């Protein structure tokens, strides 16, 4: 177990591949990660409440949304890697899961584009 | 056991979770498409209580922590700690669902029924499907707790708890996405 938070997020600790009895982080490592995730959630909520985003359009709205999406993606990745043990398990599991995820994202981005959801023009289905 | 050294059950759960991404992707896309079609009914962002939903999100996030601590305990062969964390995880899941029921009740009383508008239908379908997944997760947790109390979950069978944990964490990561896209992005 390492001391710094960044190392906690980066390093496989006890066990690793094939360690049947125990693989993953120590309990302290998991608690540390949970508090980091809670902190990011608090930042997300505070960010969405900032008065500077009220009625924001164009690049300003895009930036506000983009930052929220980055924080969301980071939380998703940290939970999948550490709590779901993808970082410590066989890589085929990572491929299976992310294949489904990226397929879903690709398919639905294409579908939303077909429905003209992006941009400022009135979309066909609104 | 598969030729990769991964058990069939664990691989099957991961394939299932990968396919669940498509289900929730469809529901989230539908919500994005219809969220502004209020048909004269109330707008979703006027009804949201972000403070309340943030606390619900925190509760679900912490349930992921207690779940992973349960997995860690069974891998050490610590049965008492396993049961405690499983129970706490199920309770936290119950608190989340109670919050969702409260939120739905409040929205309905303020005029946002399931058929009020395309936006409300998309909202209730997405968050309702997620709530159904949490409820199934609670049933799985309670079943695992009962099996443990009967001495059926030994250290050698720790993977049973790990697989239940995978499902629970997936429910959490889906909420991470739903919370940002549905509630926070205006």
Characterize the structure shown.
The complex is a heterodimer of chains A (126) and B (186). Chain A is built from four helices and no strands. With 126 residues, chain A is mainly alpha-helical. Chain A folds into two domains: 5-89; 90-126. In chain A, helix 2 runs antiparallel to helix 3 (58-83). The longest helix of chain A is centred in the middle third of the chain and has 26 residues, at 58-83. Chain A is flat, with a radius of gyration of 19 Å. Residues 1-21 of chain A have low confidence and may be disordered. Chain B is mostly helical and 186 residues long. Chain B has a single domain (8-184), classed as Cytochrome c oxidase, subunit III, four-helix bundle (Four Helix Bundle (Hemerythrin (Met), subunit A), Up-down Bundle). Chain B is 80% helix and 0% strand. Chain B contains six helices and no strands. Chains A and B meet through helix 2, helix 3 and helix 4 of A and helix 1, helix 3 and helix 6 of B.
Helical proportion of chain A, percent range? 55-70%
* Uncertain stretches of chain A: 1-21
Number of helical elements of chain A:
4
Secondary-structure element sequence of chain B?
HHHHHH
Q: Output the radius of gyration of chain B.
A: 18 Å
Distance between the termini of chain A: 52 Å
What is the strand tally of chain A? 0
Structural class assignment of chain A = mainly alpha
Main beta-sheet annotation of chain A: none
Any idea what the radius of gyration of chain A is? 19 Å
Decide which structural class fits the backbone of chain B: mainly alpha
Low-pLDDT ranges of chain B? none
Question: What's the helical proportion of residues of chain B?
Answer: over 70%
Average pLDDT for all residues of chain B: 96
Q: Which geometry of chain B do the CA atoms define?
A: elongated
- Tell me the count of domains of chain B: 1
Assembly annotation: heterodimer
